[in-house]
Amino acid sequence: MAFLLMSITLLHLVTLAMLFIATMEKSWWVWDSTKNSDLWYNCMYDNATETWLCASSKETEWLQAVQALMVLAVIFSSVSFLVFLGQLFTMSKGGLFYVTGLCQIFAGLTAFAATLIYTLHHSEILGRSPDFSSGNFGYCFILAWVCVPLLLCSGVMYVHLRKRE
C-alpha cells in the first residue's frame, strides 16, 4: 500500500511539473533554433547580443482560450494535490479519494481541450506569416499532450484508491 501511495504521489508531482513547464516555457511552435513561439511570447535569438528578444503574442480568441485552459489545468492539478494531502490526513479508514480524482480528471480534460484547440487552430494563433510552413510543434506542445493521459490515468487511480491504516 505504501508503494502504491508513493507511486501515485510521484506520478502526480511529475505530471504537475510537466504541466507547469508546458504552460510556461517558450517552445510551442519552433521555426528554427533562433525563432520560436509559446502561449505568451514570440521570441527571436539575437546573435549579436546573444540574448532572446521576446514580444507579446498577438492576442486572438483561440490563444486566450488555450492560455486560460492551460492555467486552469495547472490550478486543478495543484488543488488536487493539496486536497489529496488533506484527505490523506483527515479521511477515515476505507474512504475513497473522489474529490482528488475528480480534480485531477478535470485537469486532464482542460489540458486536452487546450492542446486540441492549439492543434486545430495553430495557424490562426500564430498568424499567417510567410515562413509558417517551415515550422513545427515544439517540445512544450508535445509535453502538454503527454500530460493529458497521465492526468486522466492518475485521476482514475485516485478515484479507485482506498485509504487504509
From TrEMBL:
Keywords: Membrane, Signal, Transmembrane, Transmembrane helix. The keyword Membrane applies. Pfam families: PMP22_Claudin. One of its GO terms (cellular component) is plasma membrane. Gene3D superfamilies: 1.20.140.150. PROSITE patterns: PMP22_1 (PS01221), PMP22_2 (PS01222). It is a multi-pass membrane protein. Belongs to the PMP-22/EMP/MP20 family. This is Epithelial membrane protein 3. It comes from Synaphobranchus kaupii. The lineage of its organism: Eukaryota, Metazoa, Chordata, Craniata, Vertebrata.
